Amino acid sequence: MFFWRCLFAVAFGAVLPQLQCATVRADRPPNIVFILTDDQDVTLGGLEPMVKLKRLVQEQGVFFDNAFVHTPICCPSRSSYLTGKYIHNHGAVNNSLDGDCASLNWQQHSEKYTYATQLQGPRYTKGYFGKYLNSYGVKQAPGGPQHIPAGWDKWFGLVGNSRYYNYSVSIDGVVEEHGDVYSKDYFTDLIKNESVRFIRQARGDNPIHPFLLVAATPAPHAPFTPAPQYSQVYDGRQAPRTPNWNHHGDDKHWLMREQAQMSARGINASDAIFEHRWESLMSVDDLVEAIIETLEAEHILEDTYIIFSSDHGFQLGQFCIGYDKREPYEHDIRIPMMIRGPGIPKNVTLHQIALNIDIAPTIVALSGQSPPSYMDGRSLTDLLFNSSSSQHGTAAANVPWRDDFLIDYHGEGHPPCGLVNCPGPPADKFHAIDSSNNTYTCLRTMSTTEDSIYCEFTMTGFQEYYDLKTDPWQLTNTAKTVSAAMLKQLQARLRELRACSGDSCRTAAAHNRH
């Protein structure tokens, strides 16, 4: 039997014009599946190879075409997905243990307050499969791979950073070593198989209890290893030659100014990475299909919310960087994000800002609970269940929503040459001296009158400003031409967001900058 389960505004500060209703089974709350990729861009065509994802998720639900991370690096962004908090509130500032990535401090504090721990009581069976945090389980990490993060009933966590072969995985705290045989070791496929097994087992063991499943793939992160059957599918494809491709950023911050243009050899290497990234994503596409086919076979697809996203974007030759992320530019901070499930209209595109910090409160809200007030993000249910069935979700436009957000990045390296006095790095090793020379905060604004980004680099005080309506590829830094009055307003709002917590992070800014 089904019934109309009506969800009132459980998200923070929601002012909803109507009752929100979703069809779910009468005897159990909905299942929730969260699929998280690693380094998948949206600006450079990162969704193009995933035709199954488009058909099975995007066209069956809502796509957010202005989805962003607030930090373009793995561990801090993943920590934000888990906690619903900005960096300055969860503490994980980079990928190292010293930067609170899976550190003892993280385990004792932020790790105890994630969406997994918020799904309280015996109702939800919760399983995590794949990459967790970059320093999880490494040799120096507290507890090693025997540590099982709070909140999870089934744990299948990769030790360390993304790999496809020759890795270790913690299975409920017991280490299992893997080699380089495709049929039994290819990590994306193992995540797929374990996810399918978890769904079937959860249905068999507790048929009246819902489950939360997280499938966190290594793809398309380095070392960009596709499955053998996909290893030549995109041979000869080039990385997109965007207007800022191999463009020297001579008006940008120090690290960009030091980049040399890519040589022919560097261009070929960047193009090869582009090919392999797309090929590796084809296995993620298979994973999406397998999970949905299993949900359908178990007769629970219509009772399940499916969320798909990435931990940040990527660059492939933009501003002369052969490949990486870490910068405050659109290709690094924009991400794919889509959600399907009961009560969500099909094939709708929403234009409001959606952030990685919104996923934790969204998961909690979809379970029927109120997101905790300490989360900085806001549940997307306010938008999802107020989307019209028209392709562009015009009803959701009536929901009051944010029009700006904070971007925050902390450089990780510690070179001995005085940082800004370091020699320019080669294009393929640029982040070897990524430190306080590349530590910054930015204010990203998208309103009816403004589409811009303003950045301050911590050590030097260097500023960047781009009007994205006229300069979408951020070719020309116009910080020096911004009026004194507008600059003062930008700085004031950035200070507010750098110090925000909980509700003050969700409060929309009232600005009329000029």
What does this 3D model show about the protein?
24% of the residues lie in helices and 18% in strands. With 514 residues, it is of the alpha/beta class. It contains 14 helices and 18 strands. The chain has helices at 51-56, 74-83, 87-90, 104-108, 115-118, 182-185, 187-205, 254-257, 264-297, 330-333, 359-366, 381-384, 484-498, 503-506; strands at residues 2-7, 20-25, 31-37, 62-64, 67-68, 125-130, 154-158, 168-171, 174-177, 211-216, 304-310, 337-340, 348-350, 354-355, 404-409, 440-446, 451-457, 463-467. The chain is globular. The strands form four sheets. Strands 9-8-7-6-10-3-11-12-4-13 form a ten-stranded mixed sheet, with helices on one face. Strands 15-16-17-18 form a four-stranded antiparallel sheet, covered by helices on one side. The protein has a two-stranded antiparallel sheet with strand order 1-2.
Annotation keywords:
ten-stranded mixed β-sheet; 18% strand; 514 residues; globular; four-stranded antiparallel β-sheet; disordered N terminus; 24% helix; alpha/beta
Distance between the termini: 57 Å
Strand content: 15-25%
- Please state the overall shape, judged from the principal axes of the Cα atoms: globular
Structural class: alpha/beta
Give the strand line-up of the largest sheet: 9-8-7-6-10-3-11-12-4-13
Q: Major beta sheet, specifics?
A: 10 strands, mixed
